[in-house]
């Protein structure tokens, strides 16, 4: 799919001005986590999911986390899943990051329940503390955008960060929004992630011109998959089939 690159919001898909050009979007990497497994689609990686308290160490040992995630143990479940899925997608795409280097990538994310579980945990802590005060680190994750902010800090992303809420899980609209932002915000890439406490999937998106020789997933092909199903197991199975075709 091509978008018209411009500077006037969503209307850039309908207008053409001097200096604007069509941008082809490539998806070079997809990282995923389900109840039992995690992996990378393009590199055909699939491994058994360890307990969440062990996943940071395992992904670090495998070279997927390129340096330690500070305070990972304090993250809520969605923040952990978000960071892990993004790390897997970047690894799948062959993109590197470091603690002392920033990158002009953005992140857009969604899930069905927002930060409901973290809000419940915060309120329970407030009640158990005599209805006077709850722990500040629990309050941080009552915001639905907090997992994306944690990921942006760790991966050094300086592009736009946006949480989208839908009545139902809508990965197709998530990808469309990320595609528009990729073409309008002057960033080198976008990370589109759908993550909750139990499963996650992340799509790494770049302009095709970033690496014309790289074989990635076509934006239209992935969009067609997620328009037919939002079940992450089915999305991954169909994307794997696509990578082999």
The overall average pLDDT, rounded, is: 83
- The residue fraction in helices comes out at 25-40%
SS-based class: alpha+beta
Shape: globular
Radius of gyration (Å) = 18 Å
Q: In terms of per-residue confidence, which ranges show pLDDT below 50 for 5 or more consecutive residues?
A: 1-20
In total, the number of strands is 9
Architecture overview:
The structure is a single chain. The protein is α+β, with helices and mostly antiparallel strands. It contains eight helices and nine strands. The protein has helices spanning 52-61, 77-93, 116-128, 136-140, 146-155, 171-184, 219-228, 232-244, and strands at residues 2-4, 22-33, 37-40, 45-48, 105-111, 161-165, 189-195, 200-207, 217-218. Strands 1, 2, 3, 4, 5, 6, 7, 8 and 9 form a nine-stranded mixed beta sheet that branches. α7 runs antiparallel to α8. The protein is globular and about 60 Å long. The protein starts with a strand and ends with a helix. Residues 1-20 have low confidence and may be disordered.
Break the fold down into its secondary structure elements and pairings.
Elements: E1 2-4, E2 22-33, E3 37-40, E4 45-48, H1 52-61, H2 77-93, E5 105-111, H3 116-128, H4 136-140, H5 146-155, E6 161-165, H6 171-184, E7 189-195, E8 200-207, E9 217-218, H7 219-228, H8 232-244
Helix pairs in contact: 2-5, 6-7, 7-8
Labels describing this entry:
alpha+beta; 245 residues
Short description:
With 245 residues, the chain is of the alpha+beta class. Helix content is 38%, strand content 21%.
């Amino acid at each position: 799919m091509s978008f018209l690159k411009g500077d006037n919001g969503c209307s850039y898909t309908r207008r053409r001005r001097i200096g604007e050009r069509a941008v082809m979007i490539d998806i070079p990497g997809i990282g995923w986590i389900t109840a039992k497994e995690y992996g990378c689609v393009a590199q055909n990686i699939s491994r058994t999911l360890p307990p969440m308290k062990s996943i940071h160490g395992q992904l670090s040992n495998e070279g997927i986390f390129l340096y330690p995630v500070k305070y990972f143990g304090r993250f809520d479940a969605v923040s952990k899943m978000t960071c892990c899925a993004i790390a897997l997608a970047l690894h799948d795409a062959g993109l590197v990051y470091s603690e002392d280097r920033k990158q002009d990538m953005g992140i857009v994310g969604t899930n069905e329940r927002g930060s409901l579980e973290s809000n419940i945990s915060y309120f329970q802590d407030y009640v158990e503390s005599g209805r006077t005060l709850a722990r500040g680190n629990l309050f941080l994750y009552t915001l639905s955008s907090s997992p994306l902010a944690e990921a942006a800090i760790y991966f050094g992303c300086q592009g736009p960060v946006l949480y989208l809420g839908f009545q139902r899980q809508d990965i197709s609209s998530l990808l469309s929004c990320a595609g528009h932002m990729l073409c309008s915000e002057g960033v080198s890439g976008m990370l589109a992630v759908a993550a909750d406490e139990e499963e996650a999937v992340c799509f790494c998106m770049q302009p095709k011109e970033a690496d014309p020789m790289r074989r990635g997933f076509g934006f239209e092909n992935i969009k067609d998959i997620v328009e037919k199903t939002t079940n992450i197991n089915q999305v991954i199975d169909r994307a794997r089939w696509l990578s082999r075709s």
